[in-house]
Design a protein that fits this description.
About 35% of the residues lie in helices and about 20% in strands. It is an alpha+beta fold and about 350 residues long.
Length: about 350
């Protein structure tokens, strides 16, 4: 049975945070905790001026303090649905690295939607968090399987990230604090060959071993409360150089896997981790024309699991993909969880 993507949507926050702004936020965060280190503050100012040169990142977006993950997730879902679609929405899957606890976002979205759309039945709900940046790709895999194996009529896959509320604003925690931004994006799946694109192939795997298990770690916060301090033991951590090497290898291996199966790749939609150290080198190694690379990293930063559906929605809304074009989506997340999918545009 064919499965198609029939709608996409995305939400980018209004607050734009430049590299200079983020450097000042690191300093202000320390001051708010009555911690002052003149040398660390000067280093943060200097390094913030070099972020674009080293990573390609110019700015990132943050949700405002009045915005909550559940409200943003509901707005995202509502953008993909028409009045008649709610009655046949059989599943809502939400990926997020930045939230935790229960009831999950998927459950709370159902309760919120039911207030407006009485036709909404009793959908399967699932929150995916531990796979971090590849969570949306795992959601696509589950969604496609629900349609093909269980006859689900409509599955919504949402990625909602409030990463700005999970990182430490401290000059001594410079690296991880500068790369992440907030966003929400998603796709709506249905059986059949209609819609925007056919979801041809999905793959979910990992390269987990004793060496990769601690390269990326941290916990999601209760992002609905931005006033919460991020405890030291759950702050996000990333081992930069090993992650860059491993992520580049994952991208190249996945691209070559699809090439070896005879698939043409007209568009490459990878997770947005680092433009200059991961994405561009991977394209060069795999022989992908840089003009085929979809990238938002320069203006959004790393939006974790929302980065791939955000790029997919941009590709669709801008009308760049032609009928018959193939797009390869590749995600890599914590402990090197891997997810990929090939879609063909209708």
């Amino acid at each position: 049975m064919e499965v198609s993507i029939v709608a996409t949507a995305s939400i980018l926050p209004d607050i734009v945070v430049s590299n200079r702004d983020i450097g000042q936020r690191l300093i202000d965060g320390a001051h708010a905790r009555n911690v002052r280190d003149a040398e660390a503050e000067e280093t943060a100012r200097t390094r913030s001026e070099l972020i674009e040169q080293k990573t390609g990142l110019r700015a990132r977006r943050f949700f405002g303090p009045e915005e909550t993950p559940v409200e943003v997730a509901y707005r995202l879902l509502d953008k993909m649905m028409d009045e008649q679609a709610w009655a046949t929405l059989d599943a809502i899957i939400v990926s997020s690295s930045s939230t935790q606890g229960f009831p999950g976002i998927s459950q709370q979205v159902v309760a919120l939607a039911r207030e407006k759309y009485g036709a909404l039945a009793h959908p399967f709900v699932l929150d995916i968090s531990s796979n971090a940046c590849t969570g949306f790709m795992y959601a696509l895999t589950v969604g496609k399987s629900l349609i093909q194996a269980m006859g689900y009529r409509r599955v919504a896959c949402l990625a909602v990230e409030f990463s700005s509320r999970c990182i430490a604003y401290d000059p001594k925690a410079f690296g991880i604090s500068t790369l992440f931004g907030d966003a929400a994006a998603g796709a709506l799946l249905e059986p059949g060959e209609h819609g925007l694109a056919a979801l041809k192939t999905v793959r979910a795997s990992s390269m987990i071993d004793a060496g990769t298990i601690g390269l990326i770690k941290g916990a999601g916060m209760q992002a609905s409360d931005p006033s919460l301090e991020v405890p030291q033991n759950v702050r996000w951590y990333m081992a930069g150089p090993p992650v860059a090497v491993g992520a580049t290898r994952i991208l190249v291996d996945e691209i070559r896997r699809y090439q070896a199966e005879g698939h043409a790749i007209d568009w490459l939609i990878p997770h947005q981790a680092n433009l200059t150290r991961i994405l561009i080198p991977a394209c060069k190694s795999a022989g992908i024309d840089p003009s085929k690379l979809c990238a938002s990293f320069a203006d959004t930063g790393n939006t974790s699991s929302a980065s791939i559906p955000l790029l997919l929605d941009q590709l669709v809304s801008e009308g760049r993909a032609k009928k018959g074009d193939n797009a390869l989506m590749i995600g890599f997340g914590a402990s090197f969880a891997i997810g990929s999918a090939l879609v063909t545009f209708n």
